[in-house]
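# nightly structure sweep
# worker-07 picked up a monomer target from the shared queue
# config: single-sequence mode, recycle default, output format = structure tokens
# input follows
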Amino acid sequence: MAIYRAETKPISRSAGRSVVAAAAYRSGEDLTNEVDGHEHKYSPRQNSVSHKAIFMPGGGTADRSELWNGAEASEKRKDARTGREWVLALPNELTSEQRADLADSFARALV
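# output follows
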């Protein structure tokens, strides 16, 4: 029987989190937070990231660093919620390609 789970978590400054750091970790990339200058180096984790994509309204594309630094810069409050993280546990019965397609279709529906 296929088991799945979906939950959402806010990324909030009041909790000491940064949307740039979260994006760097999830994508396995090195990103610099332009607001505080902190470098988030997660490229060693790159091999454990099986799939990553950015979906924009209207089907456009965006640079990951520009997108998340823009989100971070747009909020001025110290307790701002700069992002929302979706955690999906997808059925193990699906192939890697099927899980990626399912995650992509879920993301497109959110956008």
